[in-house]
Design goal:
With 569 residues, chain A is of the alpha/beta class. Chain A contains 17 helices and 30 strands. The relative contact order of chain A is 0.13. The interface between A and B is large, with 59 and 59 residues.
Chain lengths: 569, 569
């Protein structure tokens, strides 16, 4: 089939593959809703209006037809599953296209990680556009699995599924004109440049925009979002699992500015993807809060396609791909049928076809630990120590100073005061590097928890009451090739293998969701009061968010932006 | 200067080149108007807000600042002057960017004509984006100076100033899947594809859109425009010299759909450019008719930049070029100052600098006539002839049948019935081809008028009372290398040389405008009652517009789409 056939079908000279009859078309371009038939041929919409004959015809009896939803910014890795599994999670929710930043896997595997995502996306039922990760590693105070310079990213420029440069999280570097950042910006200057500049304001923000950045998804207040939108940044309103910005930002949206606003999810855990949904969840929330449904649908589809220059996506018009949804009620947005490229891929919240066999792509082992690095002993060199203080519902921390509990000349965990030993073990190059410190707020009374998901370097994080539990947990992860583990002494209580880069499972998402719940329960049995201790732990090594964090280089005082000693003089 | 300096200026760490103070900023992205300073450095806007110090500072005392205006579709050739002169005409009207289709010069000179436009645009004060002409020649029933296939256009794909493929005027060819048209569409499939499908509707229009066409500037009624907009075509509302579609189309525009609407001028004569203006004229008309000024400005700037993917144009935000206007009154839109790339290029309706010396680009002679082709004798082969009937204020014609006036066995002009001899002489390849016929409505009582502007092939058109006047006029044009001429017998009454491709003068536009008025008066002295006989004549050879036209192949019955005999059997 070809354009010749599509034009013949458009002219009505041959029956189209599919005729959707008696739809109420939500036309996101004209901003209208009106009755129309929709002719689909060879993956594309070819005609609107009456009188098309279809090889297959479906009477929609007045149901709405909208464009397939588009997620403007998502890290697929946060779903803990592979792209095909992620697709199975979001397609039933009406999401037919995502723009992903493979930042996590790129930090582990570099270009090989980015190519893994591109390869896994290929030929699948979800349109997955992959942005070129811009900040690998995040800073010089960590050891990531790779380092990506502009020259590494250059080959991606010609890739049809790479629209541009992913979130420029080194926002001080961009605003201050860091050479490596400018090289990347220059390389991608004619493409889409995604931003990430939480709470940036005033002249520094002007500089960030002047560098050519085009979007921002980190806004948490209307005031912040308004300043950024006025500077020309398209606002991606985000509703992640932990970062829930939609309701606070709703007052930003007006009829006059909404064409510069898109919806995104950024990071969604398996349970939230399955139970709440994705962009469709945002549509339901927005409309329930009073946003006009057509405006909401635009922010969840057309605006995003337009922002990324995806001319064949985001609307139901001739010449575009037939990515479209049948929706009975715009005020309670659920996609009854999901068509992607004219093919029915999901119906009534379930995939229309069985899970395809996983496509195996060989990746190198990414959990490489030097045995002698698993020494968690901390000889006391003083009485006072810096302690990372976990803050409720936040990924930033407190910078605490506490008295060390010293046993036999060594600083050890103190369950009474909930001060636990915390180690970050370099796991990419078996360098033997290890950062050691203490953390408050995890509440373990015995054992240890460990994981290879630790933003953004994804080294091996362990928090524990005693060194042997910590060691057992770390060794178990090495054996699994990555994942999450809870251990007590030598005994492994529970584990969730994440063999792909130590980040992703190859199991079905429902299975991963169940296993993840088991992991949480295991940590709670060890005494943690946290609802999601593994998620919290994964952010305790992220040294671009204040105030005290732990990398394999040691404790990082984020405000001073330097590595500091555990012991105070 | 570089991005490093711009970021430093944005951060306020060095004084910017120019600080515009106390502006009321028309923010076309947020849809707001609010007080702001604007910092400009190294051709770019680098900051909005307070506290920027400028090497130069201008207090705007509350005047509005808007983006520079953008013309979505214009044939510069219609101004009869070179691109630098055209720039001098539109910049004082606040137009800082145009997207041009070099269709006329491409029909004469092929790729050399397109490169001439690109070269003449280079380094000038107006941003001139040049679309790749898609339909050279218009049909097989004419001899143009060149024929452009997809392979000829391919090198333009990598040109920074070529956003896409120009108006696809062979709209039946596109909708019917003509192979040559599809080759061009395929070549430019990831770029902007401009449309041109007057009065097309229904399934054929669906096919036209399904081919990937993205815009349309030929709408004359709200109904037509609404159908096209709903099919995803961005509507370029046009206000040319003869085609005045703005007021009839105003009821189309709504707050909900206006982001899919842009303004364009298509074809404007020198006098209209100077007296009325360009896109600014459209803004004044639209706002006077009740359109919200911010919406009008969007349609005249931001929407067009967005449609063409020109990320650094169309709004006043950091990172974009400082193309901006100081406007005292949004309800009577006149640009008091025009900045392009941060430089003041026009003020109070005049250019800020003197006319730069013309850049001479050598082009081949384009008026090549075989001497023996100048035989206008029409031996009578019957009594009835087909006659082109000019229709008031239209470029389409009537297909008349009249009794021939026969003298000495030859059909000749008949001034009593206003049936004049009309010749179209092939002038590109000196092939000797000539089309002969008769036309009604020009009213000459003696002499002849002739011109090398004759859409789209731009052969040499002559209308006259007697053969010797016609011959004298044609020979005069050969001598001039193209232009417009009025002759009586051997005497040349007036002439306007258009030495560039027989289409453009290298004189200042004011001079061309005055000379053009002289030409009109000369034709009127010869008896023509038409207000603009040369303009009308230039469309009498355009065989893609009904009903009867004359090319060098002979009379074309446009409805039958074939060459027909002058004499009826």
């Amino acid at each position: 089939m070809s354009i010749v056939d599509r034009l013949a079908a458009a002219r009505g000279e041959l029956p189209c593959d599919l005729a959707l009859r008696n739809a109420r078309l939500v036309n996101v371009i004209s901003g209208e809703i009106y009755p129309s038939d929709i002719a689909v041929h060879d993956r594309h919409v070819v005609g609107l209006g009456d009188g098309y004959e279809g090889a297959r015809e479906v009477d929609l009896a007045g149901k709405f037809v909208t464009p397939g939803l588009i997620d403007a910014h998502v890290h697929i890795e946060s779903s803990l599953v592979t792209p095909p599994e992620f697709a199975r999670a979001v397609l039933p929710h009406g999401v037919t296209t995502v723009i992903t930043d493979p930042h996590e896997i790129a930090n582990v595997l570099g270009m090989e990680g980015i190519h893994y995502m591109l390869e896994q996306a290929k030929g699948g039922q979800l349109n997955i556009f992959v942005m070129a990760s811009s900040c690998v590693p995040a800073t010089h105070m960590e050891t990531a699995g790779a380092q990506l310079e502009a020259s590494d990213l250059a080959p991606l420029l010609s890739h049809a599924w790479v629209p541009g440069l992913a979130e420029l999280m080194n926002y001080p570097g961009v605003a201050l004109g860091d050479e490596g950042m400018l090289d990347k910006l220059t390389l991608f200057k004619d493409r889409v440049l995604d931003g990430h500049a939480p709470a940036m304001t005033g002249k520094l923000l002007n500089a960030y925009a002047a560098a050519g950045v085009q979007s921002e998804h980190e806004c948490t207040t209307v005031e912040e979002a308004r300043e950024k939108l006025r500077l020309g940044l398209t606002i991606f309103i985000r509703e992640g699992s932990t970062t829930r910005n939609l309701l606070p930002l709703l007052p930003l949206i007006t009829a006059e500015n909404h064409s510069a606003i898109c919806f995104c999810t950024d990071d969604r855990a398996p349970a939230d993807l399955i139970d709440e949904g994705s962009i469709d969840f945002m549509l339901r929330q927005a409309v329930a809060a009073g946003i006009d449904p057509v405006m909401a649908i635009r922010m969840g589809s057309y605006n995003t396609a337009r922002h990324f220059g995806l001319r064949k996506y985001g609307a139901v018009t001739p010449g575009r791909y037939a990515d479209l949804l049948v929706v009975p009620d715009l005020y309670d947005f659920h996609a009854q049928q999901v068509y992607r490229g004219g093919e029915l891929v999901a119906e009534d919240g379930r995939m229309a076809s069985n899970r395809p066999p996983a496509r195996k792509i060989d990746l190198p082992s990414t959990v490489n630990i030097r045995g002698d690095s698993l020494d968690f002993t901390i000889p006391a060199r003083g009485e006072k120590i810096r302690v990372i203080g976990k803050v409720l519902d936040q990924v930033y921390t407190q910078h605490l100073v506490e008295r060390a509990r010293i046993v036999a000349g060594c600083a050890v965990s103190d369950t009474e005061r909930d001060i636990l030993k915390f180690a970050m073990i370099e796991r990419h190059h078996a360098s033997g590097k290890i950062g050691l410190g203490f953390i408050k707020g995890f509440g373990l009374q015995q054992g240890a928890i460990a994981g290879t998901v630790a933003h953004d370097h994804h080294n091996l994080a362990v928090i524990g009451v005693d060194d042997s539990s910590m060691r057992a947990a770390a060794l178990a992860l090495e054996k699994l090739g990555g994942g999450l583990v809870a251990a007590e002494g030598e005994r492994i209580l529970a584990s969730l293998p994440l063999p792909v880069a130590g980040l992703l499972s190859e199991a079905p998402i429902e299975q991963v969701r169940a296993d993840y719940a088991t992991m949480t329960r295991a940590a709670q049995l060890l005494g943690s009061p946290l609802p999601d201790p593994f998620m919290v732990m994964s952010f305790m090594g992220l040294e671009v968010i204040p105030r005290l964090k732990l990398t394999d280089h040691g404790l990082v005082d984020v405000e001073r932006f330097e590595v500091v000693d555990l012991f105070l003089k």
